[in-house]
């Protein structure tokens, strides 16, 4: 199972400009999490802080028991080996073939023989659907293939944690669907902890076990997908519905006068051009048939059902309505509006609005 990441009170700034402050969350081991937020909220900066590339002003980031903010350089180097990172553009070396790009971390950080390197590289290329493309240069393949090659390289050291910085960036909807399915399938096979930074609403609604939202330099919410998908928190609701109306504006946030004008516009019956309200627990993307059931999804459901009675009524209804017949039997849910499952009130920490 993947490693747990515990972030507490993390604050980062560039000079006098704060990027975000007092971010606290836990990435549950072996689960897929998504971090959302308008452009410019520091999501990519957060990923760099998690692997020690940027030092925060305060707070801690504990990875598998090691606080990477305060540990020695040697310990930080060792802890970084737990991570595999997929950068926005794939970050491939343009003069190297896909084979050599994927082999690079093995040659740089291990003493494996070329025979062993070849076995691992071909295995990861096959896993990401790139068999037969090992001799191609990055400039000779599509953007989607470059993303998959970047993912193959991120996997060669068998990481326990995979960070994906906007894996859908620059891809059409079909290629985005392929990447999403690939990440879900990887999680089913290796049970790694995965964190995805994205703007894609469909990815956020269908892929992760947990969703977080950064806004106004703070973490608004973080928790199981069912809780955020049924949330009436204005920022979360606006973002997941792609609406103009709400606290998020062109420059991240709006002033009160702009919000008042939009509310008056809506009251007069004018549509803001966004999609209809889609709040609710939509089906989660499942592993490809033939792969094992995702253990992370099972653990998340157990956690959600243990705290169900502590959630708002609308959230309870949305969660119980989304359960399969098998889940209803497992958790002892009777009807759409009630549950008779385990009690576990202590599990609520970390999922409510800050």
User: N-to-C terminal Cα separation, in Å?
Assistant: 29 Å
Low-confidence residue ranges: 266-271, 338-354
Shape: globular
H/I helix tally:
13
Tell me about the biggest sheet? 6 strands, mixed
> How large a portion of the residues is in β-strands, by DSSP E?
15-25%
Number of domains: 2
- Oligomer description: single chain
Order of helices and strands: EEEHEEHEHHHEHEHEEHHEEHHHH
Instruction: Return the CATH architecture of the largest domain.
Output: 3-Layer(aba) Sandwich
User: What helical percentage do the residues reach?
Assistant: 25-40%
Structural class: alpha/beta
Description:
This protein has 354 residues and is of the alpha/beta class. The chain has two domains: 5-225, P-loop containing nucleotide triphosphate hydrolases (Rossmann fold, 3-Layer(aba) Sandwich), CATH 3.40.50; 295-348, no CATH class. 37% of the residues lie in helices and 18% in strands. The protein is built from 13 helices and twelve strands. It has helices spanning 43-50, 73-80, 98-109, 114-127, 143-155, 173-190, 201-206, 225-229, 234-241, 256-267, 295-306, 313-321, 325-331, and strands at residues 5-14, 17-27, 32-36, 58-63, 66-67, 83-86, 161-165, 193-197, 210-215, 218-224, 248-249, 252-253. It has a six-stranded mixed sheet. A four-stranded antiparallel sheet has the order 2-1-4-5, with helices on one face. α3 (98-109) runs parallel beside α5 (143-155). The longest helix has 18 residues, at 173-190.
């Amino acid at each position: 199972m993947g490693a747990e990441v515990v972030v507490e009170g993390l604050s980062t700034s560039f000079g006098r400009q704060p990027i975000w402050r007092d971010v606290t969350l836990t990435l549950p081991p072996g689960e897929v999490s998504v971090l959302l937020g308008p452009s410019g909220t520091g999501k990519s900066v957060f990923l760099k802080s998690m692997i020690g590339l940027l030092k925060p002003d305060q707070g801690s980031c504990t990875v598998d028991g090691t606080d990477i903010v305060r540990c020695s350089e040697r310990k930080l180097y060792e802890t970084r080996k737990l991570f595999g990172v997929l950068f926005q553009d794939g970050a491939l070396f343009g003069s190297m073939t896909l084979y050599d790009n994927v082999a690079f971390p093995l040659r740089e950080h291990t003493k494996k023989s070329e025979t062993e390197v070849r076995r691992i590289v071909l295995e990861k290329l096959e896993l990401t659907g790139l068999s037969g493309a090992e001799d191609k240069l990055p400039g000779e393949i599509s953007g989607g293939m470059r993303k998959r090659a970047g993912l193959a390289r991120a996997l060669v050291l068998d990481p326990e944690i995979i960070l994906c910085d906007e894996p859908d960036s620059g891809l059409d909807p079909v290629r985005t669907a392929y990447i999403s399915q690939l990440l879900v399938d990887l999680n089913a096979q290796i049970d790694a902890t995965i964190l995805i930074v994205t703007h894609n609403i469909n990815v956020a609604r269908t892929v992760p076990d947990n969703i977080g939202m950064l806004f106004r330099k703070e973490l608004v919410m973080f928790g199981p997908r069912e809780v955020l998908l049924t949330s009436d928190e204005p920022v979360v609701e606006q973002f997941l519905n792609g609406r103009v109306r709400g606290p998020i504006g062109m420059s991240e946030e709006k002033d009160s006068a702009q919000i008042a004008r939009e509310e008056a516009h809506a009251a007069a019956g004018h549509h803001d051009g966004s999609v209809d309200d889609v709040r609710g627990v939509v089906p989660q993307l499942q592993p490809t048939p033939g792969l094992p059931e995702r253990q992370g999804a099972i653990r998340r459901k157990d956690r959600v059902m243990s705290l169900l009675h502590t959630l708002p009524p609308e959230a309870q209804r949305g969660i119980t309505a989304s359960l399969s017949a098998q889940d209803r039997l497992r958790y002892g849910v009777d009807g759409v509006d009630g549950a008779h499952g385990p009690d576990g009130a202590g599990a609520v920490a970390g999922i409510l609005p800050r």
